[in-house]
Amino acid sequence: MPSKKKNTLADQTHQVLPTRSATDPAATRALAVEVARGLSDDKCTDVVVLDVAGLSQVCDVIVIASGTSDRQMRAAAMHAEDTAAAMGFPTFRKSIDDRTTWIALDFVECVVHVFEPNARAQYDLEMLWGDARHVEWQRPKK
C-alpha cells in the first residue's frame, strides 16, 4: 500500500493568474496621477502612487494619502471621485469606516485610500505592496 504523504502548505505551489485590464494602462496611470495631485491640493499628506500591475489581481494602480480630519478626508475623496468621473472612471464602489479613519474608492483599475495617519500606520499598505514600483505624480516645477 502506498504511503500517504501529508499535503503541507510548503508542498503547494502558488499559481499566479495574469490579469488583463479593460482600460488603457496609460489612462489608468493618468487617473492615478491626477487623483494624487488633487489629494495633495486638498491638503492630504504623504501621497503615494504605487504601480501594482502584475502584482495584484484586483487593480493596476493604488493611490494612498493621509488626511487631517474626517471633513477634510471626505472632501478630498469627493474631489477624487469628481476627477475620476470627468476622466471616464466612474466610482465602482466606495467604503467609509464608521469613524472616517479610512476611505477607499474603487475605480476598478485604480484604488484610492485616504487614511487618518494612525490607521495608515496600522494597515501599512506601502509595506504590503513593497514590491510595487512608485509612480512620480508631482507637477513639474516651474
Given as residue ranges, the uncertain stretches (5+ residues, pLDDT < 50) are: none
CATH superfamily: Beta Polymerase, domain 2
Strand content: 15-25%
Morphology call: globular
Strand order of the largest sheet: 3-4-5-2-1-6
Q: Kindly name the structural category.
A: alpha+beta
Give the C-level CATH assignment. Answer: Alpha Beta
Tell me, rounded to a whole number, the average pLDDT.
88
Number of helices: 4
Number of strands: 6
| Biggest beta sheet summary | 6 strands, mixed
What CATH architecture would you give? 2-Layer Sandwich
Blueprint (SSEs and pairs):
Elements: H1 25-41, E1 45-51, E2 61-66, H2 70-86, E3 93-96, E4 102-106, E5 110-115, H3 117-123, H4 125-128, E6 133-134
Parallel strand pairs: 2-5
Antiparallel strand pairs: 1-2, 1-6, 3-4, 4-5
Please explain how this structure is put together.
The chain is of the alpha+beta class and 142 residues long. The chain has a single domain (23-134), classed as Beta Polymerase, domain 2. Helices cover 32% and strands 21% of the residues. It is built from four helices and six strands; from the N terminus they run αββαβββααβ. It has a six-stranded mixed beta sheet. The protein is globular. It starts with 24 loop residues before the first helix and ends in an 8-residue tail after the last strand. The model has no long low-confidence stretch (mean pLDDT 88).
